[in-house]
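Risk mitigation, structural track. In case the binding assays with guanosine-5'-diphosphate fail to produce interpretable data, a predicted complex structure has been prepared as a fallback.
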Amino acid sequence: MVLADLGARLRGALSSVESGSDEEINQMIKDICSALLESDVNIKLVVKLRDNIKLKIKSDLSTSGNNMNEKRKKLQKIIYDELCGLVDSHEEPPKPTKLSVNSSKTSGHTVTKIINGKKVKVTANKNNVKESSYVIMFVGLQGSGKTTSCTKLAVYYKKRGFKVGLVCADTFRAGAFDQLKQNAIKASIPYFGSYLEQDPVKIANEGVEKFKQEKFDIIIVDTSGRHRQEQQLFNEMIQISEMIAPSQTIMVMDGSIGQAAESQAKAFKESANFGSIILTKMDGHAKGGGAISAVAITKTPIIFIGTGEHVNDFEIFKPSTFISKLLG
Ligand code: GDP
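Fallback model:
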């Protein structure tokens, strides 16, 4: 079941409660659970959600008397809260700091800060000096939407006044550099890559070092995805990560992959220890439930969702907004 249908089913289940009888409420819980299962949400998570809903109904609904309006509002709130809990990792995703400084490392010197997109000279102290660029490494399977999402994220930060550079460290897929280059040129983002160099670790390092020297605020590194989860892919990711020491690693996951999301997320988590997730292709016929389970299982926040192929088809992910939209 795709996300749009899931929303309709959840709304239908909620509105089917008319008299507030135990039978109706039990049927509503059943309907919600089967809709989630049909959307590929992990069964253990659904069982936990069902138990939580039952417990809350028992404690919260008993105080409403026979007022049906009040009962319905409470029911909606219980379902909404539990669904939010399902997509909320309760972890704060790391955030880049918006600060460019000159090369001096002593306190009391003048640094250039970017505030609201404007360069402003300020006197630095040990607390506000950020001496190094914020490096973001992207990982994920081939075709998941990594290269597209790298550009989307670069544009997102560029619009907010950051100086952003893109590095292509995918030497496995022919055409990977061309793709990143074309995206980068279209979006006017500086880029780095090579047609000749075969060693992705070397390219990643050269790109990061170049942009660091040029005082970029954020450096985004795209890595190879290959087709399947192969040991070689994971070894390469580890080597690149050790070399460039990213400030943040983001896993890109195709929102439509269903139950396979869980094992994929676990495998990547073990090797790359990503700190956040971008879910792509949430526009089309994505079930989304598999990927949502992966989030709950790896306890990693989704930070953005991709909603199309265009560079602006990119939304900040907030559990409450996502569930509100789903419930209409
Ligand atoms: P990579 O191999 O992981 O780098 O994947 P790409 O960035 O090349 O994306 C693979 C395909 O998915 C391309 O055709 C992209 O245009 C498409 N794509 C990426 N993100 C999205 C998205 O959010 N929605 C849709 N509909 N397509 C996307």
